[in-house]
Amino acid sequence: MKHGNGMLLQLALLISLSLAGVVVGGSAPTSTHLRFYMHDLVTPYPGAPATAVRVARGVTPLPTAPNLRFGDMFVIDDLLTEGPDAASRALGRAQGSYVFASQTELAPLLCVNMVLTAGPHNGSTVAVLGRDLILDKVDVRELPVVGGTGTLRGVTGMASSGPTP
Ligand SMILES: *[C@@H]1O[C@H](CO)[C@@H](O)[C@H](O)[C@H]1NC(C)=O
Fold first, then answer.
1. Cβ pair 106, 133 in contact under 8 A
2. pTM for this model (two decimals)
3. Does any ligand 1 atom lie closer than 6 A to the CB of residue 123?
4. Share of the chain above pLDDT 70, in %
5. Nearest Cα to 68, choosing from 148, 144, 10?
6. SS3 60
7. Which of 122, 125, 149, 151 gets mutated to test ligand 1 (max ligand atoms within 8 A of its CB)?
8. pLDDT along the chain (165 residues), means of 10
9. In whole angstroms, how far apart are CA 68 and each of 64, 89, 95, 117?
10. Does Kinase count among this protein's keywords (predicted)?
């Protein structure tokens, strides 16, 4: 992930998310772990259309990323893959939005459904809702998993999000 040159989000933002959660089924809760990469493409390039569109423009530029403003909102339909390469096996889409909800920090509120279209959870979704402090120096950033459908019905837990290894 490149930053510091005002180009953040002009590039593909590749984030690995690993979800650890507890699925509350009919009987005893079971634990499940999923890992995938989310390709957030704001600027299209040949052969790769944008998967994030800005639908609202704020007023106040953010101190650490003046090309972004407090109040900017993006709607996303990002590819989820098994590996960091966009050409690796597709596992689904991340559909939802993020809003730059801090006036001083690069701290979008991510509100997204992970719609799984392959693998053992094909047809299921996981809902993630939380503050994603994208320039934080920590190795992983925690985002709450607030629910799921299908085989992941009732899932709760944590999504750890971080830049590509
Ligand atoms: C996922 O499920 C849908 C609906 O059942 C099916 O059409 C599709 O082939 C499945 N995809 C994979 C990769 O298994």
1. yes
2. 0.85
3. yes
4. 79
5. 10
6. coil
7. 122
8. 34 60 68 87 86 95 92 96 90 96 93 95 94 77 90 87 63
9. 9, 32, 21, 32
10. no
Which domains are present in the chain? 12-163 (2.40.480)
* Tokens, residue 49: 């259309």
Ligand 1 centre and the CA of 21: distance in Å? 23
**In the 8-state DSSP scheme, what is residue 45?**
B
* Distance set, CA 35 to CA 6, 9, 24, 29, 120 (Å): 29, 22, 20, 20, 13
118 C-beta closer than 6 A to ligand 1: yes
Q: Which two tokens stand for residue 55?
A: 């639908």
Index of the ligand 1 atom closest to the CA of residue 123 = 2
| Cα–Cα separations (whole angstroms), residue 62 to 4, 41, 75, 90, 102 | 12, 20, 19, 34, 9
pLDDT digits (tens, 9 = 90+) for 1-48: 333 333 334 344 566 666 666 776 666 777 888 888 888 898 888 888
